[in-house]
Amino acid sequence: MSDPASKNTRRRIESGDLAVPRTEISLSDGSTFSTYETWGPEGHSPTDGLPSRRAEWTARRVERGDTNFSQMHCARKGEITEEMAFVAAREGCSPELVRDELARGRAIIPANINHPELEPMIIGQKFKVKVNANIGNSAVSSSIDEEVEKLQWAVRWGADTVMDLSTGKNIKETREWILRNSPVPIGTVPIYEALEKVGGVVEDLTIEAYLETLEEQAQQGVSYFTIHAGVLLRAIPLTVKRTCGIVSRGGSIMAKWCLAHHQENFLYTHFDAICEVMKKYDVAFSLGDGLRPGSIADANDDAQFFELEVLGELTKRAWEHDIQVMIEGPGHVPMHKIAENVERQMRVCHEAPFYTLGPLATDIAPGYDHITSAIGAAIIAQHGTAMLCYVTPKEHLGLPDKDDVKQGMIAYKIAAHSADLAKGHPGAQERDNTLSKARFEFRWEDQFNLGLDPDTARAFHDETLPHEGAKVAHFCSMCGPAFCAYRISQEVNELATGPEFTQLGNPHAETQPEAPTAASPDTLSRDQLDEEMKKKAEEFRAGGGEIYVPVRGNTSS
Amino acid sequence: MSDPASKNTRRRIESGDLAVPRTEISLSDGSTFSTYETWGPEGHSPTDGLPSRRAEWTARRVERGDTNFSQMHCARKGEITEEMAFVAAREGCSPELVRDELARGRAIIPANINHPELEPMIIGQKFKVKVNANIGNSAVSSSIDEEVEKLQWAVRWGADTVMDLSTGKNIKETREWILRNSPVPIGTVPIYEALEKVGGVVEDLTIEAYLETLEEQAQQGVSYFTIHAGVLLRAIPLTVKRTCGIVSRGGSIMAKWCLAHHQENFLYTHFDAICEVMKKYDVAFSLGDGLRPGSIADANDDAQFFELEVLGELTKRAWEHDIQVMIEGPGHVPMHKIAENVERQMRVCHEAPFYTLGPLATDIAPGYDHITSAIGAAIIAQHGTAMLCYVTPKEHLGLPDKDDVKQGMIAYKIAAHSADLAKGHPGAQERDNTLSKARFEFRWEDQFNLGLDPDTARAFHDETLPHEGAKVAHFCSMCGPAFCAYRISQEVNELATGPEFTQLGNPHAETQPEAPTAASPDTLSRDQLDEEMKKKAEEFRAGGGEIYVPVRGNTSS
Asked: Among residues 106-165 of chain B, which lie with CB inside 8 Å of chain A?
């Protein structure tokens, strides 16, 4: 990416017939380190939009007479689509695994046929944990330009999908600009626009207005819809005793509608009609958690779990149409209640991918909810949640700006990657190992460049040690040259690999601490060992007692 | 605290004969909410220092002829000291629990008799999880004034203890200023100053120089010493194969000394002499984890666990002198390896309190290690770790400044409190509940003031809605007035408590969604119920469809 401060150490590479993208990070020894990448092709103008990479793939399916374009449908027919091959290459796994996970509903590739610009990605517990960023205006804030900028900023920082949650002006136009410029799938909550259609009067919502909205948004290219079809009339009283009632916009809207009409939720009663729209375009369900807990006190309550059961029923119904499904989840959940959420969801919703908002592990830190929720998010992803919806520092306080989007994204890439490590996801630990090796060897630029935010890491280092020489220094301002543990440890390594140490024997042996026992015929005797060690100690001191070991990548002492 | 931006809503209150402090947060209805508080008395000048609240308590023990002043010693004699009564009042538990936990070594009250200014606090798994902040200069950075300011800043943000890790100039003077102004126990790593005494030459360290340093620091009033007595000669080769060798300053210093002299670690071989110094002043051991893992790759390796076994042995030896002990821990540990750390430590170290540095759940985010480690810290505390040593955004990059201290403190108060919640610590959830209730009722000022950082929460809110009226508004810029879920939810609550809903029956009953079954003789018939509901719906619409429910604390609609 052309980012001068990063000194052109990150490049986007596309490989193979499908032009599968990755990032290559250049290291100081000339090697490169590859990472998964989301920011998409560069150099186009927003008015032109991105290249339509998928148009041909879809055109072929239209030509052969497909009427159900869903990736699940293709997978269940035994087919490996271009999208499946693409994500397999991105994930470093086999296309067969992708197909099988799609067929059983344990993963989804949200990829509306009318969003040909997107680079396919997969959401499922067997793949890297993904992160969604929310953008979108409200009546009180933001413009189209700002929202497109936020999109590009969010994918720059690693957003795997982006939801456009606009509730203000120009919802449709904003979304068009976003879609045509987005390399990632876009999700929406159609009830917002449907509400706008009926002049903002909740009671005037109808299934007709809603289906019309779905059709329009699907035609534009939205790849998944959050649909609060699980908010049933009879569950609404369960929320009255809560500390925070209903905290979901869509959930509160549907609850109000139900009460105003004394009728069941029309999203539930007309679910099949909704399915008919979605399957034409391969739009996936994100079955909304309208009754999610919005405070620690409400976590895991009966309202929340009642809705989960309904979502399980709706999952099966969607799968009868081969429509892809993921399940939305909480919210605010203290750490000891997190595992139960995943266990229930997996069982009740037939292992459909789980997509949670955090959860926040405590309520007490407004202004820092990217951190309170990164804790819960890491844990819930470790247990199997496939995608995390980010939370920014502005949560509960106002609409996020660009910096909030970045802070939220970094916190959530941390949570997602921590979960990948904890799950033993193949290859996940390579980045940690490569960065830590660079750190220990004082290859500062490599350490920065391998991190999630190289410019910030570099700037933090430079606050106290800005001069170029510091980038090969064997210390930083935390400890200074005399006390740097890594520097001292390098010396220790050199000394501790001499013969007198390889023959120290089993460190766990129950012998007195000072002298080793002779373990085998070819070891030195105790006296000989003492002699060797004394000699080594003298060498060490004679050499100045500061044996400087040049390591790979350093050119000066 | 006199903090104009907080509008004087937080006051420090001292209660009872022992003047036990707490914070009271004033809420909009005139009530107050109490929280644990660390920032100490106000209004003194740094040159005067804090009042010597404990001087009398200690004087009485000197008069009666005590030679071992350790709180553990007193507890084992069945005594409840003023310190024990003080912490019991702070923690909201019985003094007997405190005494029993101290006697069995599962908790410590670090309280050097020569630090009479400190307000006693307890570290143990049965009490609130505590947080330590590190301050201190290095050869490259910082001055005495800055370090005292950092101390005051750290306790302002909730630090329960502070470690002075200075390695630069004026170590002793800096420490004196810190101690005389600190309401919290101070910890140090004496090997740093001992090294300064021998001109910075590691090989010239001697037990004599070290004991001299211990005596001086203990006389000044340091309440706990980090001592790397577990770094044994024969374990050092185990670190050579690591990605990051030895990352502990003290650990690397002792390892180098061992290799230079081909001798066992003098801190281990002279452990009893060290104990004799510490028991005179009631200084506690913080048995150092010199071989802790400094990267994900090194987590839970044989070097780390070898040292843990030695620390277990040393714990027993210290307890023979009734010297209080806590055990330091990692480091860098992926989430799935965290539980094992606590399980081993509890078993091997006889349940002595665990005091971990994070751990970081991933290495890939330099610049954000307060977040990578808040994740691991929350989890390890949930499992029983008693105190967490904070990590700032500057970790691995340079010495932290004031803002870094604040960011690290907030991240760690979040981690500690999340763990308290997950452990079901009595009373912990009150703050979350009270804040969430304020949030749901749009009592914005109450929400801000109950949070960890009221000024930041307020400022974030005001970025988009600065005018005073917004502080009683039933929305914010996230969603705007029409889409605010809490606002809509308030209306839903009002409607859903009418009789037609309390008679909807069991929401889990397997009936068709639209109509309830008559459950008992005194319920309305189905027709009557429909009639009631239609009437209610008409009332709702006739009333404008926007039933505004005034809630406590709001004065305008």
From this structure: 138-141
